[in-house]
Amino acid sequence: MSQMNARAPKGTSDLLPDTARAWEHLTRTAQELFARYGYEPVYTPIFEHTEVFTRGIGEATDIVSKEMYTFEDKGGRSITLRPEATASVVRSCLEHHLTANGQSTKLYYSGPMFRYERPQAGRTRQFWQIGLEAIGMAEPTVDAEVIVVLMEFFAAVGVPAGSMTLLVNTMGDEVCRPAYRDRVAAFIRENSADLCEECDRRSDTNPLRAFDCKNPGCRIVMADAPLLRDALCDDCAAHYAAVKGHLDALGIAYVEDPHLVRGLDYYTRTVFEVKAEGLGAQDAIGGGGRYDRLMEQYGGPPTPGLGFALGFERTLLALKAAGVQTPALPIAEVFVARVDDSVAADVFAITQELRAAGIAAEMDHQGRSLKSQMKAADRLGAAQVVLVGPDELAAGALTVRDMGTKEERSVPRVELARALTPRG
Ligand code: HAM
User: Fold this and answer.
1) Strand 334-338 to strand 105-114: parallel, antiparallel, or no bridges (unpaired)?
2) pLDDT score for 167
3) Which numbered atom of ligand 1 lies nearest the CA of 284?
4) What distance in angstroms lies between residue 186's CA and the mean position of ligand 1's atoms?
5) CB of 331 closer than 8 Å to CB of 380
6) 97: left (phi over 0), alpha (psi -120 to 50) or beta
7) 172 within ligand 1 shell (Cβ under 6 A)
8) CA end-to-end span of the chain, whole Å?
9) Any residues with CB less than 8 A from the CB of 359 and at least 6 apart, and which?
């Protein structure tokens, strides 16, 4: 039989226990924080009808035009692995009437997303996001709240404030954006000789994307393009000013970036992105914005909303770049070691007693030497080791070694679980 290709597909990776534990720490931190702000969990399918994304994210975006994992299922439906979750969450709110009759809802999610991108550092084809959406509220305090939660998350997991930058901008709305789009399209046509082919082509379909082009020549040209912030309608200008006012009042540092357009077409008004140092080209660790027209694009009633998503992989890269260790719980708090094989059954019984008492306890099932058991205890992060031998069992008292101080004490077997239970 020929050998199987045992490698994970290009652009994906296995999250081995070290990374997976850091992952769980990020998830727990997010869950606690988001709950404090009144967000509830939601799980939507990992695949959707393709239209959810083509309509929601926009046909002319890179995500929809180049990066989707789309296939026909056995029933002939066009299905797409989700490239992001906002479109799915809004679809779900519409389907289940979560925002009917002017109600609002605050939801959060986490899970894998799929984009067929060229893999590079910080950019993969399957990546994990954690995100939240506040749907049904148009007020600028909600924009500020969402941004604050994102910044508090990064602070809570340890990204140093000095190594990240919050960028904010406004995308206007259906009142002021169309005329502005036309102006940018005209600007692109006037400067087409100095722009890349793709930006030139975009003048018809999606001119604002040209602000996002990484090509240095395009960047120079687009630096002189008209800015939306100079062409906002009164309502959008007032909304943007109010959001910035709330951020100022909360002491949230931000940089206004009039060129920030983000890669999804559903945005209206506030958009934001957090960039971290030391990540190279893929330096956005999280981003989001308002999408007040998205539900209508799905045939629902006008329903404002906004949210953010942050990338797990890039958050870990940002922590690494800043030299921050992600705290992880020890795999075992206590290791029960056996002096010889004659006590294997007792060791198993004692380990079970400790586990029943709520202690993360581990033992060696395979009869390794005491030396290797001590090494294993170390690797698992056990703070204490219980030494079990025939003499100890006969005397009814076991030796407990503190792995930090190396001190040993004798504990009556009947009191073991109580003696090892951490106080407080
Ligand atoms: P996004 O900016 O496309 O926004 O993605 C959010 C975050 O996901 C990025 O800042 C980045 O950290 C991570 N990310 C995106 N693509 C990749 C990739 N190929 N590899 C690794 N990480 C990646 C959204 O997805 C919107 N749904 C955010 C949102 C929520 N807007 C409103 N609500």
Assistant:
1) unpaired
2) 98
3) 10
4) 30
5) yes
6) left
7) no
8) 58
9) 333, 334, 417, 420, 421
Give pLDDT tens digits for 133-191. Answer: 999 999 999 999 999 999 999 999 999 999 999 999 999 999 999 999 999 999 999 99
**pLDDT value of position 423:** 55
Cα 149 to middle of ligand 1, angstroms: 16
305 Cβ closer than 6 Å to some ligand 1 atom: no
Cβ contacts of residue 213 below 8 Å, gap of 6+?
Answer: 195, 196, 198, 199, 219, 222
pLDDT at position 209: 87
What atom in ligand 1 is closest to the CA of residue 314?
12
201 Cα to the center of ligand 1, angstroms: 25
63 lines ligand 1 (CB under 6 A): no
In this structure, the strands spanning 40-41 and 105-114 are parallel
Question: How many other CB atoms sit within 10 Å of the CB of residue 18?
Answer: 10
Q: Which of 53, 62, 127 to mutate to test the pocket of ligand 1 (most atoms within 8 A of CB)?
A: 127
Instruction: Using the structure block, give the residue that is written with the tokens 């690797």.
Output: 379
Confirm or reject: Cβ of 284 under 6 Å from ligand 1: yes
Is 239 a pocket residue for ligand 1 (Cβ < 6 Å)? no
Please give the distance of CA 305 from its chain centroid, rounded to a whole number. Answer: 19
**80 residue type, one letter:** T
Instruction: Flag residues of the chain having pLDDT under 70.
Output: 422-424
Residue whose C-alpha is closest to residue 336's, from 301, 283, 380: 380
Please state the pTM of the whole predicted model.
Answer: 0.93
Q: Model confidence over 324-345: pLDDT tens digits?
A: 988 777 889 999 999 999 999 9
- Give 290's Cβ-side CA count (13 Å radius): 28
